[in-house]
């Protein structure tokens, strides 16, 4: 059965089940506060963020590629942070629909994964990523990149390296916000600024970093990031329906650029 | 009790409720059913987030989870349980606690809500079931 026919059957059979539900009664502050934060799933992924910008403009995402060569890093926490930034770079390359850049980033992810003993976990994904890039299946590539993050997270957990998973996730989020704020700083619109609001996410990462083992928190890069996270959380938590000003976006960009630099320069 | 009134009543009567973890088998079955329904949105160009939210719905209480959504995107949250005789209900709330108007699909053990957030920020998804016994569930989310 063709895809169109399948869809028609689906919509035909289920039309009665669809409705505009009457709005439920509001929930209270205690319930809002008590709603479970589901870690990575409660945070928009990089593709989700970029997709929203694609609705209001046609960003040239290639302008935000990093041209660095793989750093030689030995500290596992720094490797995890850098892995996270590279996963965000993978989403960026997919959004820019640049096959070669996808492969370049994938190669760097593989090198870092290898250096913390997770090369095998990445190998199969690495082949799929190359295949999806070659076939220009960008949506599938996004899903594969998120699967990479999930798989590495699981593998880190099974190695009892949960702190690495936290740092990888933090690195990915920071680089995503850096890219988005860099785009907005150069192409400010109020509509664009409305996209970049993520209340609670900075606080989530601040709490996760606070819970890291003392020896990890003592690393200069991690200590620097921890110090700057509250300011970032605040910058992303302005009141709803009040777009950040161009000055606020510039401040956000400066802040996130500095945080990503801490990750990459400490590594070298 | 009428279904539309069921979730508001639960929300009014309950405090905080985290979903307990579901068994692996139940999580897989529920996820398969959720993905099958979410395939309809995927065919319309929605991209699926890789991780699901799985657990056991507490008896007589909704499970509440927070999602940070991006203005301009459109979202579908799709839920399924393997308890065929129950009815799932889903609602979405803004960070101020106001109910969000959404397109809903309710079909016994399947439920989905779709909407486009006007503002980026934190949203609360409430999922509940009508049988009054704990049931496993899975929620997947798609965006476009």
Brief characterization of the structure:
Chain A has 268 residues and is an all-alpha fold. Chain A has helices at residues 3-14, 29-34, 46-56, 76-95, 99-115, 119-134, 138-158, 162-186, 190-195, 201-210, 214-217, 220-235, 246-267, and strands spanning 18-20, 36-37. Chain A has 13 helices and two strands, in the order H-E-H-E-H-H-H-H-H-H-H-H-H-H-H.
Order of helices and strands of chain A: HEHEHHHHHHHHHHH
Shape of chain A: globular
What string, H for helix and E for strand, traces the elements of chain B in order? HHEEEEEEEEE
Helicity of chain B, as a percent range: 10-25%
Shape of chain B: globular
Structural class of chain B: alpha+beta
Strand content of chain A: under 5%
Radius of gyration over C-alpha positions of chain B, nearest whole angstrom: 14 Å
Q: State the end-to-end CA separation of chain B.
A: 35 Å
End-to-end separation of chain A: 55 Å
Task: Let me know the average pLDDT of chain B.
Answer: 87
How many helices of chain B does DSSP assign? 2
Oligomer type: heterodimer
Q: Name the pair of protein chains with the most residues at their interface, and give those residue counts.
A: A-B, 60 and 60 residues
- Number of contiguous helices of chain A: 13
**Low-pLDDT runs of chain A:** 1-10
The main pleated sheet of chain A reads as: none
β-strand number of chain A: 2
β-strand amount of chain B: 35-45%
Structure characterization notes:
The complex is a heterodimer of chains A (268) and B (144). Chain A has 268 residues and is mainly α. Chain A is 69% helix and 2% strand. The longest helix of chain A has 25 residues, at 162-186. The radius of gyration of chain A is 20 Å and the shape is globular. Chain A starts with a helix and ends with a helix. Residues 1-10 of chain A have low confidence and may be disordered. Chain B has 144 residues and is of the alpha+beta class. In chain B, strands 1, 2, 4, 6, 7 and 9 form a six-stranded antiparallel sheet that branches. A three-stranded antiparallel sheet of chain B has the order 3-8-5, with helices on one face. In chain B, a hairpin with a 2-residue loop joins β6 (103-107) and β7. Chain B is globular. Residues 1-6 and 12-16 of chain B have low confidence and may be disordered.
């Amino acid at each position: 059965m063709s895809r169109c026919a399948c869809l028609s059957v689906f919509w035909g059979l289920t039309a009665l089940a669809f409705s505009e539900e009457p709005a439920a009664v509001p929930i209270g502050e205690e319930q809002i506060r008590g709603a479970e934060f589901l870690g990575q799933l409660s945070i928009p992924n990089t593709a989700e963020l970029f997709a929203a910008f694609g609705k209001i403009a046609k960003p040239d995402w290639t302008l935000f590629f990093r041209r660095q060569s793989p750093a030689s890093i030995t500290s596992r926490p720094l490797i995890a942070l850098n892995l996270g930034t590279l996963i965000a770079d993978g989403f960026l390359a997919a959004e820019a629909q640049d096959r070669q850049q996808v492969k370049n980033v994938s190669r760097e992810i593989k090198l870092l994964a290898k250096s913390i003993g997770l090369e095998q976990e990445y190998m199969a994904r690495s082949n799929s990523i190359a295949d999806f890039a070659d076939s220009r299946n960008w949506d599938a590539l996004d899903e594969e990149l998120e699967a990479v993050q999930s798989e590495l997270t699981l593998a880190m957990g099974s190695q009892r390296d949960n702190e690495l998973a936290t740092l990888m996730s933090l690195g990915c989020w920071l680089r995503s916000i850096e890219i988005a704020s860099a785009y907005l700083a150069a192409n400010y619109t109020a509509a664009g600024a409305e996209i970049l609001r993520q209340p609670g996410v900075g606080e989530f990462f601040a709490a996760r970093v606070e819970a890291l083992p003392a020896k990890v928190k003592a690393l200069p890069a991690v200590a620097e990031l921890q110090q700057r996270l509250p300011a970032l959380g605040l910058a992303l938590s302005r009141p709803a329906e009040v777009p950040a000003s161009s000055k606020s976006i510039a401040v956000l960009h400066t802040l996130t650029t500095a945080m990503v630099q801490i990750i990459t320069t400490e590594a070298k | 009790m009428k279904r539309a009134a069921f979730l508001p009543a639960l929300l009014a009567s309950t405090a905080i409720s985290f979903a307990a973890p579901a068994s692996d088998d139940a999580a897989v079955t529920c996820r398969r059913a959720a993905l099958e329904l979410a395939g309809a949105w995927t065919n319309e160009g929605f991209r699926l987030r890789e991780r699901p939210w799985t657990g056991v719905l507490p008896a007589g209480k909704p499970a509440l989870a927070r999602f940070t959504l991006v203005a301009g995107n459109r979202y579908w949250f799709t839920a399924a349980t393997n308890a065929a005789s129950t009815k799932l209900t889903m609602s979405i709330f803004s960070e101020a606690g106001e109910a969000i108007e959404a397109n809903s699909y309710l079909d016994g053990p399947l439920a989905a809500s779709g909407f486009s957030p006007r503002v980026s920020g934190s949203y609360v998804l409430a999922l509940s079931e009508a049988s009054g016994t704990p049931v496993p569930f899975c929620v997947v989310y798609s965006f476009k």
